[in-house]
Design goal:
Elements (H helix, E strand, L loop, with lengths): L2 E8 L6 E5 L2 E5 L8 H14 L4 E4 L5 E6 L3 H8 L9 H5 L3
């Protein structure tokens, strides 16, 4: 199963993290939005949290992006928004693929 999800990216944040705000996935990264640095950091962070490869399919130069991943949307959100104490969530999320 492959799914897509709209996310909002906040570059130049104080720390890397993923939050759910008002039903939306918001990804905070410390990297600046120049030469793809923030995008690479977003992909790296989401892979670390979920254990699956994530790809940006639209919004390369915008804060609003659409990503593609090999999980169902609800499963991806559950994996990416796990509390920091339970990291890494990689094994839990990979076992259901």
């Amino acid at each position: 199963m492959e799914d897509r999800l709209k996310i909002k990216v906040i570059p130049k944040a104080s720390r890397n993290r993923v939050l759910i705000k008002d039903g939306r996935v918001v990804v905070y990264v410390t990297a600046p939005p120049e030469k793809g640095k923030a995008n690479r950091e977003v992909l790296k962070l989401l892979k670390k949290l979920t254990g699956v490869r994530v790809e940006i399919v639209s919004g390369e130069k915008a804060r609003e992006k659409v990503i593609r991943f090999p999980l169902e949307k609800d499963e991806f959100i559950n994996c990416s928004s796990a509390p920091e104490k339970s990291l890494p969530v990689k094994s839990r999320c990979q076992s259901s693929i």
